[in-house]
Amino acid sequence: MKTLQANALSQLLSGNNVYPKADAARFELQNENVQSISRAPKIVHFSLNINLIASNNTKLIALRIAYAN
To answer: What are phi and psi of 43, to 5 degrees?
Structure first.
């Protein structure tokens, strides 16, 4: 599993009143499952877990995004 810092999410959520400061939260974008079939027609299925962790709060907000094509 690869974990990437999703700094773009801070820009998306910076307008949220729940988190007035974008740097008050740490964002991790985790690629949970990537499967691809190279035969024609190409089929790609992957799901992403986005974890929102506030530095001053112990609560964890997890968003699960699944995309099938």
So the answer is: -125, 125
- For residue 52, the tally of other CB atoms under 10 A from its CB is 19
Burial of 63 (0-12, 13-18, 19+ CB in 10 A): exposed
Can you give the pTM of this predicted structure?
0.16
The SS3 call for residue 10 is helix
* pLDDT per residue as tens digits for the range 7-63: 555 545 554 444 444 444 444 444 444 444 444 454 445 555 555 554 444 444 444
Alpha-carbon span 66 to 52, nearest angstrom: 17
Q: Which residues contact 17 (CB under 8 A, 6 or more apart)?
A: none
**Contact in structure between 9 and 30 (CB atoms under 8 Å):** no
